[in-house]
Predict the structure.
Amino acid sequence: METLKKYDICFRTLSIGNHLFDFRINEDFFKLFTFDEQFEQPDLDIHIELEKNINFLLLNFEQKGTVVLTCDYSLDKFEHPLTSQEQLLVKFGESFNDQNDQILTIPYGEARVNVAKYIYQLFMLSLPKIRIHPEVQNGKSHSKVLEILAKHSVEKIPYL
C-alpha cells in the first residue's frame, strides 16, 4: 500500500543549488485521496526541480502523461494526454501555512516537504472541464448517443 510519506522530499541535507526528483503516478496514488472525479488509468511522470536557497526553496513541477476519460457527448472512453507545469515557493516561518496555492510556509526547524498534495492539484487542474473524444471533435464518431442527440436537438450542438 502506498503512503503519503513516499512523497516527502528531505531538503535539510541537500546542498545549496538545484536537485531533481521524479515520481511515477498511477491509480495507487489517487487511492490516497478522497475524490469523485471520473477518470481511469492515470499514467504520469512528475519531474520536480528543487532549487535550494538559504532562505527558501523553489519547486518547479512538470507533469507529462495520459489518463483515460469518458466523452461528455458520446460516452466513449478515450486516452487524453496531459502536460502541465507549476511552481511552488516554500518559505520558512513561525508556523505551517498552506493557504496560498503557490506559497507554502513551513516551520523553521522542518527538514522535509511533502509534495503529494501539489502533485494531486497539478493533475486535477490539468483535466479538461469538457471532455470531448477526438473523433467527436473531428466529426468522425459514429456513436448511437450522438445520433440520438442530433436527431432530438432543437439547436445545433457543437461537434454533432
